[in-house]
UniProtKB/TrEMBL annotation:
UniProt EC number: 2.5.1.18
InterPro entries for this protein: Glutathione-S-Trfase_C-like, Glutathione-S-Trfase_C_sf, Glutathione_S-Trfase, Glutathione_S-Trfase_N, Thioredoxin-like_sf
Protein name according to UniProt: Glutathione S-transferase GstB
UniProt organism field: Ralstonia mannitolilytica
Alphabetized Pfam families for the sequence: GST_C_2 (PF13410), GST_N_2 (PF13409)
Location of the GST N-terminal domain: 1-88
Keywords from the named record: Transferase
PANTHER family listed in its UniProt record: DISULFIDE-BOND OXIDOREDUCTASE YFCG, GLUTATHIONE S-TRANSFERASE-RELATED
Top EC group: transferase
Amino acid sequence: MLRIWGRLSSVNVQKVVWCAHELSLDHERIDVGGAFGGVNTPEFLAMNPNGMIPVIEDGLDDAGDSRFVLWESNAIVRYLSARYGPGTLYPLELHERADADRWMDWQTTSYSPAMVDAFMQLVRTPEDERDAERIERSRKAAERATAVLDAVLAKQPYVAGQRFTMADIACGCATHRWLGLPMDRPSRPNLERWMAERHCCK
């Protein structure tokens, strides 16, 4: 069985849970992190010395002993996709898999960082303490990234081509977060079509 450590309000935990649902994996999720705490205990730090979520334990036996522990959300999504979804979520053809990997890395290095200030200011900061300039800089950066994704989705149904893959999970959760922020944004019809096709971040 698969055990997922992390609160569901975390976008990185959402990736892992969505992946598990897509793969129809029997799993247990344990709330830790944020208001739940629990990430600084010796037990949790033994699994992830960074004290961050998500973490998975895969291959639990009947006694509850873990066979494999992994942290970092995109690494977890890749692992689960490769182990339980080869040829579907995890492309077997080299070029298709490299394309999916590229978009997963882009989500981590470009897309999510662009929106982080807007998220922190609009969701985590009291209204009277918000920095409008930081929000606007973040909005512009995130919209540039969103335009890149929308343009790709104008040419193909999914992020990495003709099939739903692990790349759609990583980019889909980030997009779900972006579209949920309380701000005006231009219409992105291809992005909206893509997001409507699957229930993101279950």
